[in-house]
Amino acid sequence: MTTESIPGLPTQRPNPLDPPAEIGSLRATDSMVRMTFPDGHLGWLATGHHAVRSVLASPAFSNRVELTHPVIPAKRLTGQSLKDFPMPPGMFNRMDDPEHGRIRRMLTGQFTVRRMKLLEPRIEQIVDEHLDAIISAGPPVDLVPAYTLPIPSLVICELLGVAYERREQFQGDASTLLNLESGAEEATAAWVSIQKLLSDVINEKRSAPADDLLSGLIAEDELTHEELVTIGMVLLIAGHETTANMLALGTYTILQQPGRAEALLADPVAAVEELLRYLSIIHFGPVRTALEDVEIDGHQIKAGEAVAMSVPGANRDPEKFHDPDELDLTRNAQGHLAFGHGIHQCLGQQLARIEMRIGFAALLRRLPTLRLAGEVRFRDRMTIYGLFNLPVTWDD
């Protein structure tokens, strides 16, 4: 057990597909270490699977915005704290129970496994249409704008009831909000823009409801307009950014070595879970703050202390996964924390799994000679890791 303190969250990745090397070194010494946050708060960093899972599962920890300490320096937070940005009504992903549970229960009714399964034929159609266009145009192509970004964007738009024609606006706003280099004015403008978009959509649906998630929530008549706007914003951003980057980064990873495509096609379900574990694109946080004194893995966390968690570190923990730094697409990766754990576990995880399973398999099946065709740029200054571009070619 170590008592050393580190000056901040390690973020440098010598290998772009691996967590920062320092994360593994810290975890080998102890599952939790003292860490100084960018705002000067002395808290903790959890890198072990058991420690991260325990914090996420414990009601002794809060996810409320006003208690949060930022885990990395962001340009827009210079000279400010998250306490300067009051939480808007409906931001359920930054609430504690019972407020969180009230909204979560309504959303869970919209994200049932049955409803997600019913979406499969439509997702298959969307994937095939994009592949038809790619094949028709011929190589080379950048898969990010041609495939990995539009597929989840179109799916979440149809699920929520947002016109896909508005994608350029919300994709641009989302990118600004997730970019650590965005200034306060840029981030505020993006926030206002995307909230206005959702406000307009909700007003339209009050007049002309349809068979979509936002219309369903409006019909329940239990949420204010402001709550509906924020819920829609959270789902719209999370619903396309995470899956888009998993599709891009996962495809890049598969194309790194011969035989990986065949392994994925042999068992797409297992392969998707292993890619989720291995890549772990949520690489900054999450962060929770102790509401009371609590013990985690032998460490006494005092009330008011924050714990940052390294999901990539937890998903590469050798105490949980054998030979964790090896990508084994046949592995049983059950228990990974890519979707989080506890009450804030990703609401759309089943939809994301379906999109990845169909998206990876169709791409590799229809383009068996697919290969990389240039340098890629990694999203290392974004809150969601992934790729800005993915140039590929194939035998036409």
CATH fourth-tier homologous superfamily = Cytochrome P450
CATH topology: Cytochrome p450
Helix content: 40-55%
Question: Helical segment tally?
Answer: 15
For the biggest β-sheet, the strand order reads 1-2-3-9-6-4
> Beta-sheet strand percentage?
5-15%
Rg for CA atoms:
21 Å
List low-confidence stretches.
none
What is the CATH class name?
A: Mainly Alpha
What's the total count of β strands?
A: 11
**Number of structurally distinct domains:** 1
The chain-level mean pLDDT equals: 92
Approximate shape: globular
Distance between the termini: 57 Å
Give the biggest beta sheet: 6 strands, mixed
Keywords: Heme, Iron, Metal-binding, Monooxygenase, Oxidoreductase
Organism: Kibdelosporangium aridum
Pfam family, one: p450
Protein name: Cytochrome P450
For this entry, give a set of tags.
single chain; 396 residues; alpha+beta; Cytochrome p450; 6-stranded mixed beta sheet; 3-stranded antiparallel beta sheet; 15 helices; 11 strands; globular; oxidoreductase activity, acting on paired donors, with incorporation or reduction of molecular oxygen; Cytochrome P450; iron ion binding; monooxygenase; Cyt_P450_sf
Plain-language structure description:
The protein is of the alpha+beta class and 396 residues long. It has one domain (6-394): Orthogonal Bundle (Cytochrome p450). The chain is 47% helix and 9% strand. It starts with a strand and ends with a strand.
